[in-house]
Predict the 3D structure of the following.
Amino acid sequence: MAKPRLGVFKFSSCDGCQLSLLDCEDELLAVAGAIDIAYFPEATRSDDVGHYDIAFIEGSVTTPHEAEMIQDIRARSTALITLGACATSGGIQALKNGADTAAFIDAVYAHPEYIDTLDTATPISDHVTVDFELRGCPISKRDLIELVAATVVGRTPQTPSHAACIECKLAGHVCVMVSQGTPCLGPVTHAGCGALCPGYARGCYGCFGPKETPNTAALAAQLANHGADNRQIARLFSTFNTNAPEFRKEAEKHE
């Protein structure tokens, strides 16, 4: 029986999620024999050819070329899975959405005429059907191993859907918002990081995006009670997952 062909593709991103995949080298040895890593520019020199049973996509669609490229990959893939905040919500580069892109290009680049970009940075799901989304900036190594193992055997990956606050309590951290008044997105953020930032007495930045049915309005009210003004609240919801609908709508309420 032929091994499933895996292709790993990069769109507009920092490569952090691909590096998370490479960082799993020891754990992946257990399943590597069951997968044919047919295309992965970060790690191999193979050409992008043929059909893929599994396509991993990192990054957002930010250029006309990427908008065409994702259609081609979708047509050649059985299962298409997005990795990370850029691919699932547009990433931090989606801060340009609704802004004057031409003015940004003129300010940043010495030769703007060489830049070919869209006015928006959008998630992969805005362009093609996505079979599964793995969140995070970067993705969780634990969740990635679960995703690979589940995909190989044909079951649905079991990744947490609860808030980061659950991980915080399981780790025994004192709530930074209650004890110190530190702004924190933990109550509305998808779990997966192991409550990394609160473990260092910092508020959650929302790297894993909104959890299921997040009550952003209630959190915004609590942030205001702790002294945050509208600008601060809008900025808090406008970072790694600024284009996630739940975060974007709450930020817009305070602009």
User: Anything to note?
Assistant: The two ends are 56 Å apart (CA to CA). DSSP finds eleven helices and five strands in the chain. The chain has two domains: 5-153, 164-253.
